[in-house]
Amino acid sequence: MTGDSTLVVGSGLIGTGIARCLARAGGPVTLVSRRPPLLPPGAYGARWAALDATDARDCRRLLSRLRPGRVVLVHGPSDVTWCEDHPDEARAAHVTVAETFAALVPDRRIIMISTDNVFGGDAARNTESTPVAPANAYGRAKLAAERALLAEAPRSVVLRVSLVYGHEPADAGTWLNFFASCAHQLLRGLPVEAPDDHWTTPVLLDDVAEVTAALLRTRHPLPPVLHLGGPDRVTRAEWAAVIAGALGAPPHLVRPVPRARTRYASRPANACLTSEVLPNLPPIGRITVRGVRAGARLLASEFTAPAPPAA
Record's superkingdom (predicted)? Predict the structure, then answer.
């Protein structure tokens, strides 16, 4: 494998989406994680290799063998509730991986996907110049990882993304994004309780992947921190209503509730990101980031109601 290859660390929703986008563009892509992704790597054009990214020796061996020209870090536990219950483990996992790759390939373009949880939720929209104040243990872990990477790898970029959504199959068991969770429940005729006081700027997985790919390719100087959010600022309840409309589900199944009554209680009230920089970066600024209605229309055909039980 040549220096034109890309290594994607993490095989969850975002990691596999980025790998799929990069593979479509024609470059060799390797996806690594402790366990294989849900879909076989051939389904999105990348190959998969086992890696414990918290093991520096394992990382050194893999980097020596693959010699990637670019690295995307989408690593570490992202379940906010789990991180609240295991703050030390969450911090160690996120920071260790960032430190390891910064030390082993400091001269490569490294893009680390980060989160809106590094903010406290007081501002209606958070830009790159908004002071950070992590809302929870996940945000604190990610912020520490950001700082560890940027301190040692001068070509690295932290891309903070807002709530990412895309398709996940019904048999995935635990869905990693709000859209998929809502869609599968609504198509089963089940109610969806969604906060009416939790504001987000959802961003479609395909758009995150396209922006990441463009950042990897560009020869223009890049700032150390960039934000990527969708153009629509909506509550989760409003967004769930859009999803129901796109799927043709009864609107009464969406039940607005206070954030404090849901699993989103520890999230920042305003988990909204906007960028002062990204629109002015060629060619990234020419990428259209779709709003929630366009995203829902695009994804609706990928979600289908479960078949009725056999008679």
Answer: Bacteria
The per-residue pLDDT for range 12-56, each reduced to its tens digit, is: 999 999 999 999 988 899 999 998 887 666 666 789 999 999 999
pLDDT digits (tens, 9 = 90+) for 186-213: 999 999 999 999 999 999 999 999 999 9
Structural domain count of the chain: 2
Adjacent-strand bridge partners of 32: 9, 49
Q: Check whether residue 148 and residue 258 sit in a common domain.
A: no
DSSP state letter for 154: T
Rounded to 5°, the CA angle 53-58-63 comes to 90
Strands (E), the chain: 6-9, 29-33, 47-50, 70-73, 109-115, 157-161, 164-165, 192-195, 199-200, 203-204, 225-228, 234-235, 254-257, 270-271
